[in-house]
Every structure is written in C-alpha cells, then in structure tokens.
User: Fold these one by one.
Assistant:
Number 1:
Amino acid sequence: MRNFFLRLVHDSCKLLVVSCWLFLCASVSLCLLVFCSIPAYAEKGDAVAGKEVFEKRCRQCHGDTGEGNGRVADKVYPPPRNFTWGLFKYKTSPMDQPPRDEDLLRTINDGFGEASMPPWRDIMTEKEKRDVIAYEKNFSDIFETEKPPEEIDYGEEILYSEQSAIKGKELFKKAGCPECHGENGKGDGIKKLKDVWGTREWPRNLTKPWTYNGGNKPKNIFARITVGIPGTQMPSFADKNSTKYFTEEERWHIVNYVRSLADETKRVKKEEEDKPLKAKYINGEIPMDVHADEWKGAPFKAIKLFPQDQTKEKFFKPTNDGIKWRVLFNDKEIAFLLEWDDRTKSVPGDAEAEKLSEGEVFEDAVAIQFPTAILPKIPIKEQLPSIEHGDMEFGVNIWYWSSGTTLSPQMTKVKYSYGIKSERVEPEIKAGLSGKGEYAGGIWKVILKRGLKTSNPKDDLQFETDKLIPIAFGNWDGSNGGKGNKHTATPWDWLILEKG
Ligand code: HEC
Ligand code: HEC
C-alpha cells in the first residue's frame, strides 16, 4: 500500500512550482495586509516569509485562505482546520484564550498522532516554523490581544506510581470519562458524539497513547484534562463553576491512571516491521478458544491498517487502526488469532448498535490474504501478487470472517481472486476453514483455522515449514460504514513456520 502522506509531501513540492508566479502576484498586496495585523508578541516570526512556507507545506490541506478547504481536504479525517474560526483544539492556555505559540509549534513539530497531519519536526527549519506560525495567526482576529495568552497552572506534578494510578481510576469513573472513553479506555463509550464542525467524533482510544494528537507526555495529558479539547465533546475538568471540577492533584492522579492504560503490545515496532512472524508449533490440538493458554506463549506482531484508497470507492475515515496477530500450527493444521480494538460491536438489526452507528450498521469483519501458490524459499518482490486482491498472474486466497447479524450467525468464507476487476474472481468456496470471534471490552478476537494442506492445491495455498509466506490483512468496522471496498488494509507482511 502506498503511503498517502509521503505522496502529499511529494505532490506539494511539485505544486510549489506552479504556485510560484501566483505567489509573486499576490505577495505585494498581502505584504501590506500582513504587516498591519501582526500582534506585538508574534514579532518572532516573519509572516511574509511564512506565507511561502504555508503555500509549500500547508495549503494543500488548509487551503489558500486558511479555511481548511485545500485540494486534498476531503481525504483527511477529521477535516483540516479552518483557521478563520480561531478555534484550536490542543492548547495549554485557558479555554477562553488563544493558543500559545508553543502550542502551534508543538502541532507543527509532532503532527497528529498517526492520522491526518504529518509531523514537520525534521522537515522544516526552526525559522520556517516560526514564520509559518506568524502567518497562520493572520487568518483569525483572536490573536489580536494586548497580552500573550497565559499558560495553565500545572500545580505540583505527581509522578507515576501504582498508588496514584489506583486513585486516578476512581476519579476517572467519578469524572464520567467512561461514558465516552469506555470502562477500559478503549474509546468504546455509550455516546454518539459530533463536534462543532458537524463531524462524527470517536473518543480517543486511551490505550494507544501514540495516537494522541496533543502529545502523550504527562504534562500534555494534564493539559488535555485541564483545558478539554475546544470544539469537541471532550470537556474541561478545571472549571471551578462546573460540577466536573477536579483539583490539580486529582487531575495528576487521572493522568497517571490514563498512562497505566497504555497497551504497548498493539504498537507497531519499527525494528520488527520487516521481520517475519514465527508461528508457534504445538504438539496437541489447536484450540478454537481465544482465551486458551496455547495462544499466550505464541509470538505476536502488531501491524498498521491503512485506509483503502486504491479503488474507485475510497475509504478515508477509518476508526480501527491496527491488528495484532499470532499463529499456531501442528502437523495437520494452522490457526491465526487476530485481535483488534474496535469501539463498536456492529450487529445489524441490534438497537444498541444502531444508536452508536454512523449510518447503517454493517457487520464487523476481518480478512487474511495469502498468495495462491507455494512460493520459493525467498520470494522476491516481483513475484508477490498485487495487494489489491492479486492480479492476473499471481492470484490470492482471501479468508474472510464476518460477525453476523441478529438473524444470522458469524460466517467464514474463502475467496479466490485474480484482481478486483478480474473476471476470474470465483465465487466463495468452502475450503475446510473454520472461524470463531468474540467481542469484549472494545476488542475483537477472531480465530481462523485450516488444514496445512487441502485437496485443492491449484487454488489453495499449501503451507510448508521453513518458507517465507506473504500475508496481509483487511478490516471492516460496520458501525463506521465499513462494507465492501470501504475498509482498511495492511501492506504485505511475512510469516514463517519453523518447528525447531
Ligand atoms: C495532510 C493534510 C495537512 C497538512 C499538509 C497540514 N495540516 Fe494542519 N491539520 C490537518 C488536519 C486534518 C487538522 C485537524 C485535525 C483535527 O481536528 O483533529 C489540522 C490542524 C492544524 C492545526 C490546529 C491545531 C489545533 O490545536 O487545533 C494547526 C495549527 C495546523 N494544522 C497547522 C498546520 C501547518 C502550519 C501546516 C504546514 C506546515 C499544516 N498544518 C499542514 C491537516 C494538515
Ligand atoms: C463527553 C465525552 C467525553 C468525556 C466525558 C471525556 N472525553 Fe476525553 N475525549 C473525547 C473525545 C471526543 C476526544 C477526541 C477529540 C479530538 O481530539 O478530536 C477525547 C480525547 C481525549 C484524550 C486524547 C487527547 C489527545 O491529545 O489526543 C485524552 C487523553 C482524554 N480524552 C482523556 C479523558 C479523560 C481522562 C476524561 C475524564 C476525566 C475524558 N477524556 C472525558 C470525549 C470525552
């Protein structure tokens, strides 16, 4: 799968050439405008130079006029910010004050978690960052204040300890955080939320701090709980006039509880990305129970899901962002345990599911893709089937599991495909595959099991030991419009079966 954001950065360089003459024409008139409106405390940056930076790096999303309507705006989710509203989400100044320059700088440096906005820390010079901040502030009059905005009061930081996290857990409940973030912080709350821009909001999955947009250092989390996230449903817990007021000390305990929720096993490890996952060999039967001990000792790997953007019907608003997978095999069979965080159990026909769903509820689903043929010991890139369901030369097997409806049970099927548009896509045929899934606490766990060999070697992958096996995954969140081509998928990864 091509990396969408790298493409954006690349595209934006090309665009710069086209936009140079435009820039020259416009800059004379804009110089005047810009110089008139720079507030006193922003003199650090040069807004005129900042315009150039903005046009090179920011305008494809934020738009020429800063209204969030750039060329690729409809491909990022949530949409790029309209700066003319003067509403900023991740800041360390009190609710009623504009963000501090430091906040804008942090956003530019770190981007947003793993989503929408790229990090510019190593791409832009410090001067370029200061300049673009000065320019960005001209889009709204909220920055025309006498004094620079203040920084919130952090009180005395309480360092992490288990005791503090336990206190924080109680306060987390008392504050009503689970209503939105779920009992275990998976973002699987019971409320359907919209932000002031009218966009559907999915509360952050607090067990994945690497996806936080406002940073995941203790002070960043303290600031979020203190200020809230303006424009969204995430409230401030430092408003003395509100029943939801918590002291600085209490907020630090909550911070420590939130930190304790982190599940590092679901984070993609850069250093392991290119290494194959080793399936675990066991002597006995392979259990179809997701809680069985056999799974606990099996090596696992986390892989990132990307929005499917290759077909005509693209999918740019993903919720589920990764799959953790592990594999067991014995002399007869092989089984995969796929685990992913999903805020909603999507059961078509179920009233509760319908309440939370964004549009019609479809089934949740997951798929594994393998090449059709057995591969040589070291497969070369050119021999891999296209990630998009294979191609005319190299076909794929797709093992597909879906979660069922109120009327029909869970279902597993196999599909043989030679490319999405290929007419050689055959109907699903049962190939001795069995599947079983379980949803609890914001997590799906699904097992898919098949014989190592089948009676249909022309179409089915025949598993062999000591060979690198390409493998990829697809995922559907049925409460977020996930159906057919509207899904997320991973690039090719590698699996190896070793008995020793
Ligand atoms: C690929 C698209 C993209 C590019 C390029 C981009 N942004 Fe953004 N930006 C976004 C999105 C999307 C949001 C809103 C995210 C959200 O609401 O959660 C955003 C929000 C922001 C915010 C608001 C932060 C807040 O606290 O609310 C600032 C500031 C910002 N961008 C600055 C910049 C600057 C400066 C550049 C260029 C150096 C830039 N962006 C380039 C997509 C982009
Ligand atoms: C009414 C719903 C609601 C409640 C209650 C709520 N949150 Fe949130 N929270 C959200 C939403 C929605 C977001 C994501 C907003 C965004 O960034 O666009 C969020 C985001 C967050 C983030 C991620 C910030 C980031 O940088 O990305 C943290 C941490 C967080 N909430 C903690 C808490 C804690 C702790 C509590 C209780 C003290 C709480 N929330 C209560 C809705 C809520």
Number 2:
Amino acid sequence: MNKRIYFDDPYQVEFESEIIDRVKHNNRMALVLEQTCFYPESGGQPADKGTLNGVELIDVIEDEGRILHIVDQDMQEKKVKGKVDWKTRFDYMQQHAGQHILSQSFWELMQGKTRSFHLGQNVSTLEIDIKKISDLELEKVEEEANKVVFQNREIKTYFVDEDKIGEVPLRKPPKKSGVIRVVEVSDYDFSACGGTHPFRTGEIGLIKILKWGRIRNNLSFEFVCGSRALKDYTLKNRILLQAASRFSVGEEEVPDAIEKLFADLKSGKKQTRNILMKLSELEARDIRQNAKSGVIKKVYFGRSRDDVRHIALNIIRNPGYIVLFGLKADNIANLIMARSEDVDFDMRELIPAASQLINGKGGGRPSLVELAGDNVENLNQILAELGSEFLKS
Ligand SMILES: [Zn+2]
C-alpha cells in the first residue's frame, strides 16, 4: 500500500518518493509511488493538481487500493519529487470541510440526510433528502453552519477498527469495510471520509448557499466556501453597485427601481400601440381617399404584420373594398387580403394561388386571409396577378 501523506498532513505539498510500479492506464503511463501527497479523485472531491519532477499530472486516481499518478510522458527515473498545487488543494479543503458542516446543519435543523455531494470547479452541490425549505429555514441552516466555522473548532482525523465503528456517532454509515478513517468536526460532525480538510473550522471561511432547486425527490443546494465565497461576494457587490449607479439609486432601492422601469415600459408599450392604431386609421383613410378603384393593392416593407393588418381592417370597415396587401419583413413574404362585409366573395378562394406564388401557406376566414412564405421577390407582381384573377370574377 502507498503511504498517503495527506491523511496525516493535508498541508504538506512537497515530497520525494521511490517509484514502485509503472502501469498502463487508458494507454497512458501511470506511476505508483511508495508515498504521496496527491489526493486521488474520490467521494465527490476532485483529484489534486500538481507535478512530478516538474511534469504536470494529468490525473490522480485510485485503482484497487493503489494511487495512480497519470502522466503524459514516460518517466524512467527511480525517484520523483512531487509538488501539489497548494491553491487548488486548499480550495478543495475549504469546500469539502464546509460540506461536512453544512450536511450536519441540515441534519440537526431539518433532519435532512445528505444524499450526494459534488465538489465542482466553481460551485459545489449538496443533495439533501427534504421536500421543501423556507427562506427562514435556509437562513437558519446557514447561520448554524457559519457559527461552527466562527467557533474555530478542531477538525480531527483518526482511524477506527470496523468492530469499534459502532461507537462513533457517524452521520452516515461507512461505505468501506475494514479500518475506517473518521473525520470529526469536534463534537459536531462525525464522518467516514478519506478527503483533505483543514485542522480548524475557521480556515473554511464563510459558508454561503447560493441557490437551490429540486433534484429527483430531494433538494439540491449550490454552495461556496472561503475564497470562493469572497469571489462571489465581490462579483455580486460589483453587479449591484453597477445597477444602483445605472438607476441612480441606493443599493437597497434597486429592486424597486427595476419594478418601476418595468411598469414604465409596460405603459409606454401600451401608449405606442394606441398611437400606432391611430396612425393606421389615418393611413387607411388616406389610402381610401387616393384609391382609384375598390380593389386596393399595396406592398409594405419592414412594417409589422399587426400594423399592416390594422390598415386593412380600417379600410374594409367601409363598404365596397377589396384589399390585397403584401409585406416584406425579415426576409418573409406576407400577404394580408381582406374584403368589406358587403362584398360577396370568399377570400379563402385566393389561398391556393397565393400559396404557390409566395411559396408559403396560410389561412383565415371569408373576409380575411393571411399567408406567409419565403418568396420575397416581386410582391407587386404577385399582387397584380392575384388582383387580375379577382377582377375577372
Ligand atoms: Zn471529508
């Protein structure tokens, strides 16, 4: 068995070791060392990063009790000097120990059992088997967890024989048999765990739950600890200050300012709609006054379909009109064709020919049909053709 230095001293990041075996793992070279500081991926915690003789490790995994250090190139040396990337290691220590405390807080306050834990690159997730949580309960869980951090309790690790493990008040039964490694947040949480944790809870720093959602039948919580919490606070503070400055209000007033902006936008849109309706009435009147016959053909560009339909509807409100409108917008050809109540013609009869001409489809009622297609060329000519068909009847 390889000696796992990180079991006793998670702060040691440099070491020397004999290479005791070289094996192939997925076509890559994997080194087995007599002793190592490198933590292999396990229990939701990713593997450490770092180098062996200056060569970057690709991965560190556990395989049948052995720790495999996977490298990209052949290393024929007998001995290696290893160096674990401390920044990543300490980050993982903060997140992992924070998880122990958070899990126990969920258990103490809500009888929520931890179903899974994943230490991610930016945030970590904790799945707790509870069905719901209120804002107040969430706050209490966070408060409790941070209280344990501020108490700066000792985090102890020790090994217990399988037959004695029943005497340890473990939060979860161990997954492994034989000698069990216990990680104890002094008098608070007892976990069977092989991970890396700081010696005292104060080193974890702030524990902050960012959001939660449903997963399977449980709730999943995203959280950050320590440096990640500071980074998150910095980002959110910056966003809030930017928003406050944009609205020229204090930070607490940002939500109200957003509400007001939405209300203004809504009433502005309503006003615009009313003005456009009025405008289409005027346009319709203008078109009628200048029309040479009862059949009105016109092609619009870049207008909204609603606008053009409104103009058509305003014209046919008066007796004796047939309106054939084309609209080219966003590279789509639209046809809006309508007739006044007193004109005895079913506009739907135009649909087959119109569909073919604009290479599209549509439908409607006897007094109004609308089509859309992708032949945006020659809309004037298309309307002329449809109109001539119509005039023959
Ligand atoms: Zn742990």
